UniProtKB/TrEMBL annotation:
Annotated coiled-coil segments of the chain: none
InterPro entries registered for this protein in UniProt: Emycin_Estase, Hydrolase/PRTase-associated, UCP036794_erythomycin
Source taxon at top rank: Bacteria
Species for this entry: Fulvivirga kasyanovii
Protein's name according to its UniProt entry: Erythromycin esterase family protein
Length: 441
């Protein structure tokens, strides 16, 4: 570094030290618990989809939020049908599975390792044990917010309606027939088949949602299963829109997906009683970190963190980012490729991770305060973001999102060196098109 650059770097280090706390055990999360206070929305990020420490620290935070602050459910960047099975398992529903491993092994959509891993199994075991010791209306749930599960959601709807409403089930089968005429309910086939047919099955899924919505109050079943059926119908509508938009360019498909996740969160809050409910959300940093503090905003993109802040107010929302300097990660070389453990190289000079590493090689928790972060508030630093597709050799030249960190997050967990998550599956099953993260647009 030249003298001028070194001086600026040192000022940033000093500014960061002012808001830095030790991070070794769950007791060191006390400053974060104080920052959260009575907030009802805590969004926990991750800088990759395959890092052990991101899962374990999110679990530690989640446990404290549930035990100490009465949080009601966990919502994740996962598909509704798969995660709803986990929800029924941790709440002890009849015939919901004998072990967390048994239920997690049903995640067969690539990238399987995101949720079918031993770290999540540990969280589910803890949640089930916790729920066994509380009354029914205090049991903590586990839900998926994502939009990818077009086929699975339609199948879940039919399975339910065949018992509850055979006439609507008959109409719903017409939706399946429409998708079959365009290559089926797998997103890639449908997206490619509809390039020259702008509307495709849009009318059919919208009608299905309207039919289910108009009849749902009369269904004689457990309330949560009724709610789940309605959510699967909304997934089908938005998945159809998402996959059609995916073949085009621009931010539309990203925005459809993140708006769907934010709307699903709203529905969950309403279902649980929005005035008294608190929730914790697990998603990638690019979803939970406010998009307005990154180039995403200039591209016309929004994300969950921004949408939740705008709707519920910044005083009720806490965004927590994660990152590391080096380590290992589970990812694939291309979409659908076998999962493998890869090296995450040292972060390059000029990045947020390099800055934190240069302070000292220790894990730390940062709690941002605009009054103490005037130097940092105006700085745009590169911040690493690894998706399910990764090339360590290109890390220095890609996989970084320029960010005003204290505006993007309210707090940040820095792990100097990380290790890969531990998947349950030996092989990944590829069915869908890749997610389009902002740094690949």
């Amino acid at each position: 570094m030249d003298t001028q650059t070194l001086s600026a770097h040192q000022r940033l280090i000093e500014s960061t030290k002012d808001v830095s706390h030790r991070l070794e055990t769950s007791h060191h999360l006390d400053p974060l618990m104080d920052r959260i206070g009575d907030s009802r929305f805590v969004l926990l990020g991750e800088a990759s989809h395959g890092t052990h420490e991101y899962y374990t620290w999110r679990t530690a935070i989640t446990q404290r939020l549930i035990e100490e602050k009465g949080f009601s459910f966990v919502a994740v960047e996962g598909d509704w049908p798969d995660c709803y099975r986990l929800n029924r398992f941790v709440k002890g529903y009849k015939d919901s599975g004998l072990t967390e491993e048994e239920v997690l092994r049903q995640f067969d959509r690539w990238p399987t390792w995101m949720w079918a891993n031993w770290e999540v199994a540990a969280l589910l075991q803890w949640m089930k044990d916790y729920n066994n010791n509380v009354i029914k209306n205090r049991k903590v749930g586990f839900y998926g917010l994502d939009v990818y599960s077009l086929g699975e959601s339609l199948e879940a709807i039919l399975q339910y309606l065949d018992k509850e409403d055979p006439q609507i089930a008959k109409e719903t089968r017409k939706v399946m027939e429409c998708f079959e005429s365009y290559g089926g309910t797998e997103g890639q086939a449908y997206a490619m088949a509809t390039r020259l047919v702008p509307k495709a099955c849009e009318k059919e899924v919208v009608k299905m949602l309207a039919d289910i919505t108009s009849h749902i109050s009369s269904y004689d079943s457990d309330p949560e299963m009724v709610f789940s059926t309605g959510q699967n119908a909304k997934v089908a509508v938005n998945a159809e829109r998402y996959y059609r938009a995916m073949v085009g360019s621009g931010p539309e498909s990203w925005n459809i997906r993140d708006r769907h996740m934010a709307e699903t969160l709203d529905d969950l809050m309403e279902f649980h009683g929005k005035d008294s409910t608190k929730c914790v959300i697990w998603e990638h940093n690019t979803h939970i970190g406010d998009a307005r503090a990154t180039p995403m905003a200039r591209s016309g993109m929004v994300n969950v963190g921004q949408l939740v802040r705008e709707k519920y107010g910044e005083e009720d929302v806490v965004l927590v980012g994660f990152g590391s300097y080096k380590g290992s990660v589970i990812a694939g070389r291309s979409w659908g490729a076998p999962m493998e453990e890869m090296t995450v190289p040292e972060a390059p000079e000029g990045s947020w991770e390099y800055l934190l590493h240069s302070m000292n090689e220790e894990n730390r928790l940062l709690i941002f305060d605009p009054d103490k972060n005037k130097e940092l508030m105006s700085q745009r630093l590169n911040h690493r973001a690894i998706g399910v597709i990764y090339s360590p050799g290109a890390d220095r030249y890609s996989n970084y999102v320029p960010s005003r960190i204290p505006q993007r997050y309210d707090a940040f967990l820095y792990i100097d060196e990380t290790e890969a998550v531990h998947p349950l599956h030996l092989k990944a099953n590829s069915k869908e098109m890749p997610d389009t993260y902002p740094w690949n647009l």
